[in-house]
Automatic annotation (TrEMBL):
<dbReference type="GO" id="GO:0005524">
    <property type="term" value="F:ATP binding"/>
</dbReference>
<feature type="binding site">
    <location>
        <position position="24"/>
    </location>
    <ligand>
        <name>ATP</name>
    </ligand>
</feature>
<keyword id="KW-0324">Glycolysis</keyword>
<dbReference type="InterPro" id="IPR000023">
    <property type="entry name" value="Phosphofructokinase_dom"/>
</dbReference>
<feature type="region of interest" description="N-terminal catalytic PFK domain 1">
    <location>
        <begin position="1"/>
        <end position="389"/>
    </location>
</feature>
<feature type="binding site">
    <location>
        <position position="655"/>
    </location>
    <ligand>
        <name>beta-D-fructose 2,6-bisphosphate</name>
    </ligand>
</feature>
<keyword id="KW-0325">Glycoprotein</keyword>
<dbReference type="GO" id="GO:0006002">
    <property type="term" value="P:fructose 6-phosphate metabolic process"/>
</dbReference>
<feature type="binding site" description="in other chain">
    <location>
        <position position="263"/>
    </location>
    <ligand>
        <name>substrate</name>
    </ligand>
</feature>
<keyword id="KW-0021">Allosteric enzyme</keyword>
<feature type="binding site" description="in other chain">
    <location>
        <begin position="573"/>
        <end position="575"/>
    </location>
    <ligand>
        <name>beta-D-fructose 2,6-bisphosphate</name>
    </ligand>
</feature>
<feature type="binding site">
    <location>
        <position position="566"/>
    </location>
    <ligand>
        <name>beta-D-fructose 2,6-bisphosphate</name>
    </ligand>
</feature>
<feature type="region of interest" description="C-terminal regulatory PFK domain 2">
    <location>
        <begin position="402"/>
        <end position="778"/>
    </location>
</feature>
<dbReference type="GO" id="GO:0048029">
    <property type="term" value="F:monosaccharide binding"/>
</dbReference>
<dbReference type="GO" id="GO:0046872">
    <property type="term" value="F:metal ion binding"/>
</dbReference>
<keyword id="KW-0460">Magnesium</keyword>
<dbReference type="Pfam" id="PF00365">
    <property type="entry name" value="PFK"/>
</dbReference>
C-alpha cells in the first residue's frame, strides 16, 4: 500500500488564484466557484473573482476582485454563474491577451481556474503558452518592471468543463449535464400526460449542436420511440423506418409517440434534420396529430441537481490541489470524472480529441465519432438500440430458457426502469421473461406470470415498484419457492433490490445443497435509497432520494430568508448508512452531518454549536445540520435540536424537520433511470452467457460461486462480483459495507463548511493521458 498523502503539506501561502466562468453558462458553475474560493482560502491562498469571463480579464479594474469566505455564501443552489460569463473577441487578439496579462500581474495572479467549454479552455492554454512573451513585452513597454517578470514568470492553468451538452472528450460528465437532463425529463414527463390524453405525437428538440448526449440519454430515460443525434445519423430510408415504427407502436395500443431531435441532428449525407421536418413527415405520411416543442434555454436554467453540485464541489477542490502542485513543466490540465473517480487529464489532449469527433462527423466516419465520444456514450447508444426496436418473432433467437425478475426490499425510484430494460433485453435474447409480484413472498405463492415487450411500455418514468416488493427473505419459503421454480421451469433469476436482496441471494446460494432448483445463474442489481449494498458505489434510487433531500433543504433555507438568524436540524433516512446525510450535506451546503460511521460525542456537538455561533456573527443568516436517522441511539434529532436551541440562545433560533418517506417517493431522476436501464441490460446479457455455459445434457446446473453475482459500479467500472465473496466486506449487524468510498468526501464537506480537517489526497495528483481506445465498460 502506498503511503497516504494529505493536503496539509500543500500550502497556498503567497499564491493568488483567479477564477472565471466563460462561454455558455451551466448549472453547477456556482458550486465550482464556491469550492475553488473556499478551498483556496482554506490553504491560505488569495482568491480573486474575474467577472464576465475573459472580457473582465481584458478590462481589469473592478472586474478583478479579491473575495472572502462569505462572498460565496448561498450561491450553491443558484443556477447560471454569479460572476458572469461573456464571449470575448478582444481576448482572441494578442493585444487583448497583453492587457489581460497586465491586469493579472497587477493583482499577482499566476494561477487560473477556468470553468467553461473547449473554446474557453483552448484560449486559456494559448494564454499560458504566450505568458512569458507577454510579460517581456509588457516590461519592454514599461507597464511592469523586470522584478515582476521574474516573480510572475509562469502561469498555471487548470480547467473544469462547464457545458450542458457533455460535448468534451475525456470526462464522463461535464458540469451542468445532469441538471439539463433534469429539465428535459421534467418537460417530457409533463408532455407525456397530455400526449396520452389526445393520442398525440410530440417532437422534442433538445440542445446539442455538435453532441447528441442530451438527446440520447433523455431518449433512454423516457423510452422515446425515435432519436436523432449528430454522431449516429439514421440510415438511408429512415423516413420509412420511423413511420413504420410509430405505426407499429400505435397498433400495440400505445396512445402517444415521443421523438427526440438534437438541434445538430443530421442524416448520413450531413444534411440537417430539423424538428419541423420530422413533424411534417409524420403528419403527411401517418396523419397523426403532431406537435413540436423546442426546449431551448430552459435546459440551461433552474437550480443545479445534487449530482452537479457534488461533481462541481469535488472538481473545484481538485482544481485547487492541481494548482498548488503545478510546476512550470506541468501541462495545463482538466479535472474531470471517470466513472466515480476524479482524474486530471492534459487539457490539449482532451481538446484535440473533442475536435477529432467533429472532424470524424464532417468526414462521415460516424462509427469513429461514437467511439471517440467514449465508453459511456457508446454504452448509452448500444442500450438504446437494443431497447427501442422490437424484433419480429421470426427474427428472435429461441433460447428455451425462462428468466424471472423480482423486486426485493423497500421501493426505490428507478426499479421500474431496470425491470423494463431487463424484460426487453431478455426477449431480444430469445428468453421467456417472467415477472414475480411481491418479492419472494409472492414467489412462494405462485404470483408469477409471463411478461411481454408491450407490458413494460412507459415504465421508465414511474416511481416505486410496479411489480410490488416485500422485505421478506426467501429463507422461510425455500421449499415453496423451489416448487414454483420447478412448476414454471425457471432457468435464471434477476433480483433487483437493496440489502435484503443481497441477503436473499446469499440464502439461495447456501440452499443449493438442499434444492437443486437454485443451481441456476442468479444476478442481483443494487436498488435502494440508502446506498448500503456492498460491492457497489451507487445503487438505483439513491440519486432520486438525494435530489429530494437537496430540494427540501433549499426550500427550508428559503423559508427563513428575511427572518432572524436560524439553524435547521434535518433528519434523513438511510438506516445505519450515512450516505444520504453526508452527500446531502455536501450538496446542500450544510454546516454539519452526523452519521453512524463517524462516531461523535458531546464535545464535538458543543464544538459544532460554537462554530455555528461564530459563523452567525458574520453576514451568514442560516445554518443547516443533517442527521442520519440511526447515527446515535442517545443523540436523537430531538436532543440535537434542544442542544442547539439552548446553546444558540440570543444568536440564532432553531427548527427541526424529519423528511421521512418523501425521500423514497417521486419520479426517478435521469441518473437513476439511465443507471437502472444500463445495468439491467448488462445483467441480462451476463445471464444469457451463463445460461449457455451452465446448460449441460438437457438441464441447467450452475453451482459455482461465480454463478450468483452482484453487478455494481466500483470506481470506473461495472463489475460482476460473487455475493459469497462480498460477505467479508459486509457489516451484517448494521447492514452496511465495511468500507465506503464516500467517507473520503466527508472532509470535503467539512472544509467547505470552514472546519479544519485532514483530507486524504492519495488518489489525486496523477496526470493521466486520454484513453483513445475506449474499451467497453468491464
Amino acid at each position: 500500500m502506498p503511503d497516504k498523502k494529505f493536503f496539509e503539506n500543500l500550502s497556498g501561502a503567497g499564491k493568488a488564484i483567479g477564477v472565471l466562468t466563460s462561454g455558455g453558462d451551466a448549472q453547477g458553475m456556482n458550486a465550482a466557484v464556491r469550492a475553488v474560493v473556499r478551498m483556496g482560502i482554506y490553504v491560505s491562498a488569495k482568491v480573486y473573482f474575474i467577472y464576465e469571463g475573459y472580457q473582465g480579464m481584458v478590462d481589469g479594474a473592478d472586474n478583478i476582485v479579491e473575495v472572502t469566505w462569505e462572498s460565496v455564501s448561498s450561491i450553491l443552489q443558484v443556477g447560471g454563474t454569479v460572476i458572469g460569463s461573456a464571449r470575448c473577441k478582444a481576448f482572441r487578439t494578442r493585444e487583448g491577451r497583453l492587457k489581460a496579462a497586465c491586469n493579472l500581474v497587477k493583482c499577482g495572479i499566476t494561477n487560473l481556474c477556468v470553468i467553461g467549454g473547449d473554446g474557453s479552455l483552448t484560449g486559456a492554454n494559448l494564454f499560458r503558452e504566450e505568458w512569458s512573451g507577454l510579460l517581456e513585452e509588457l516590461a519592454k513597454n514599461g507597464e511592469i518592471d523586470d522584478e515582476a517578470v521574474k516573480k510572475y514568470a509562469y502561469l498555471n492553468i487548470v480547467g473544469m468543463v462547464g457545458s450542458i451538452d457533455n460535448d468534451f472528450c475525456g470526462t464522463d460528465m461535464t458540469i451542468g449535464t445532469d441538471s439539463a437532463l433534469h429539465r428535459i425529463i421534467e418537460v417530457v414527463d409533463a408532455i407525456m400526460t397530455t400526449a396520452q390524453s389526445h393520442q398525440r405525437t410530440f417532437v422534442l428538440e433538445v440542445m446539442g449542436r455538435h453532441c447528441g448526449y442530451l438527446a440520447l440519454v433523455s431518449a433512454l430515460a423516457c423510452g422515446a420511440d425515435y432519436v436523432f443525434i449528430p454522431e449516429y445519423p439514421p440510415e438511408e430510408g429512415w423516413e420509412d423506418h420511423m413511420c413504420e415504427k410509430l405505426s407499429e407502436n400505435r397498433a400495440r395500443k400505445k396512445r402517444l409517440n415521443i421523438i427526440i431531435v438534437a438541434e445538430g441532428a443530421i442524416d448520413c449525407h450531413n444534411k440537417a434534420i430539423t424538428s419541423e421536418q420530422v413533424k411534417d413527415l409524420v403528419v403527411s405520411r401517418l396523419g397523426y396529430d403532431t406537435r413540436v416543442t423546442i426546449l431551448g434555454h430552459v435546459q440551461r436554467g433552474g437550480t443545479p441537481s445534487a449530482f452537479d453540485r457534488i461533481l462541481a464541489s469535488r472538481m473545484g477542490v481538485e482544481a485547487v490541489l492541481a494548482l498548488l502542485e503545478a510546476t512550470p513543466e506541468t501541462p495545463a490540465c482538466v479535472v474531470s470524472l471517470s466513472g466515480n473517480q476524479a482524474v486530471r487529464l492534459p487539457l490539449m489532449e482532451c481538446v484535440q480529441m473533442t475536435q477529432d469527433v467533429q472532424k470524424a462527423m464532417d468526414e462521415r466516419k460516424f462509427n469513429e465519432a461514437v467511439q471517440l465520444r467514449g465508453r459511456s456514450f457508446q454504452n448509452n447508444l448500444n442500450t438504446y438500440k437494443l431497447l427501442s426496436t422490437k424484433k419480429s418473432a421470426a427474427e428472435l433467437p429461441k433460447s428455451n430458457f425462462n428468466v424471472a425478475v423480482l423486486n426485493v426490499g423497500a421501493p426505490a425510484a428507478g426499479m421500474n426502469a431496470a425491470v423494463r430494460s431487463a424484460v426487453r433485453i431478455g426477449i431480444t435474447e430469445g428468453h421467456k421473461m417472467f415477472a414475480v409480484t411481491d418479492g419472494f413472498e409472492g414467489f412462494s405463492r405462485g404470483q408469477i406470470k409471463e411478461i411481454s415487450w408491450g407490458d413494460v411500455g412507459g415504465w421508465t418514468g414511474q416511481g416505486g415498484s410496479i411489480l410490488g416488493t416485500k422485505r421478506t427473505l426467501p429463507g422461510k419459503y425455500l421449499e415453496k419457492i423451489a416448487e414454483q421454480m420447478r412448476t414454471h421451469n425457471i432457468s435464471a433469476l434477476l433480483v433487483i433490490g437493496g440489502f435484503e436482496a443481497f441477503e436473499s441471494c446469499l440464502q439461495l446460494y447456501e440452499a443449493r445443497t438442499r434444492f437443486e432448483e437454485f443451481c441456476i445463474p442468479i444476478c442481483m442489481l443494487p436498488a435502494t435509497i440508502s446506498n448500503n449494498v456492498p460491492g457497489t458505489d451507487f445503487s438505483i434510487g439513491a440519486d432520486t432520494s438525494l435530489n429530494a433531500i437537496v430540494e427540501t433543504c433549499d426550500r427550508i433555507k428559503l423559508s427563513a430568508s428575511g427572518t432572524k438568524r436560524r439553524v435547521f436540524i434535518i433528519e434523513t433516512m438511510g438506516g445505519y448508512c450515512g450516505y444520504l446525510a453526508n452527500m446531502g450535506a455536501l450538496a446542500a451546503g450544510a454546516d454539519a452531518a452526523y452519521i453512524f460511521e463517524e462516531k461523535f460525542d458531546i464535545r464535538e456537538l458543543q464544538a459544532n454549536v460554537e462554530h455555528l455561533t461564530e459563523k452567525m456573527k458574520t453576514s451568514i443568516q442560516r445554518g443547516l445540520v443533517l442527521r442520519n436517522e440511526n447515527c446515535n441511539v442517545n443523540y436523537t434529532t430531538d436532543f440535537i435540536y434542544q442542544l442547539y436551541s439552548e446553546e444558540g440562545k440570543g444568536v440564532f433560533d432553531c427548527r427541526k424537520n424529519v423528511l421521512g418517506h418523501m425521500q423514497q417517493g417521486g419520479a426517478p431522476s435521469p441518473f437513476d433511470r439511465n443507471f437502472g436501464t444500463k445495468i439491467a441490460a448488462k445483467a441480462v446479457l451476463w445471464l444469457s452467457k451463463m445460461l449457455k455455459e451452465c446448460y449441460r445434457r438437457g438441464r441447467m446446473f450452475a453451482n459455482t460461486e461465480e454463478s450468483v453475482c452482484l453487478l455494481g459500479m466500483h470506481r470506473r467500472n461495472l463489475n460482476f462480483q460473487p455475493v459469497v465473496q462480498l460477505k467479508d466486506a459486509t457489516d451484517f449487524e448494521h447492514r452496511i459495507p465495511k468500507e465506503q468510498w464516500w467517507l473520503k468526501l466527508r472532509p470535503l464537506m467539512k472544509i467547505l463548511a470552514k472546519y479544519k480537517t485532514s483530507y486524504d489526497i492519495s488518489d489525486s495528483g496523477q496526470l493521466e493521458h486520454v484513453d483513445r481506445s475506449h474499451p467497453a465498460e468491464a
